[in-house]
Amino acid sequence: MFVLGIDPGLSRCGYGAVRHGRRPVAEAAGVLTTPPEMDRASRLAELQTDVRSLISELKPDVVAVERVLFQRNVATAMSVGQAVGVVMAESAAAGCEVVEYSPNEVKEAVAGWGGADKQEIAEMVRVLLGLTELLRPADAADAVAVALCHLARMGPSAAASDRPGRAAVGSGAR
Predict the structure, then answer these.
(1) Exposure letters 106-129 (e unless 16+ CB within 10 A, then b)
(2) What's this model's pTM, rounded to 2 decimal places?
């Protein structure tokens, strides 16, 4: 099984593609960005184009998205929610299964408890993938954690749908 994890945001949308195997393998990781000086509609359109290209390039089986539960800033919550909508719509249109996980579900699946902080999640992503350094930027590590959460939730049955690998991990902005 090949999972594209998304840590949604309008300014910074983290992504991480992980393939199931004896040890999960990250095949791509990075951040999609939109310029804050652009109007919201144009930023959403740019994010849509970037997500469409990413899905077309990676061809994931599943897109796992971190669910937005609560934000102190209403404007931020709205823009993140709109970004989630763009990601989910593009994923469904591409024929991908779309699943959502709460931040606590991701933390519990990756670190073993729902109260883990960002540093603990980044360290567990490093350990689970067998990396020598933390995955950067943090948004990419968070997105990989979402993908790992889905694989953990799927269990051994995820191996049944494995496909051959493609690209290596990259860590830049698109």
Answers:
(1) bbbbbbeeeebeeeebbbbbbebb
(2) 0.88
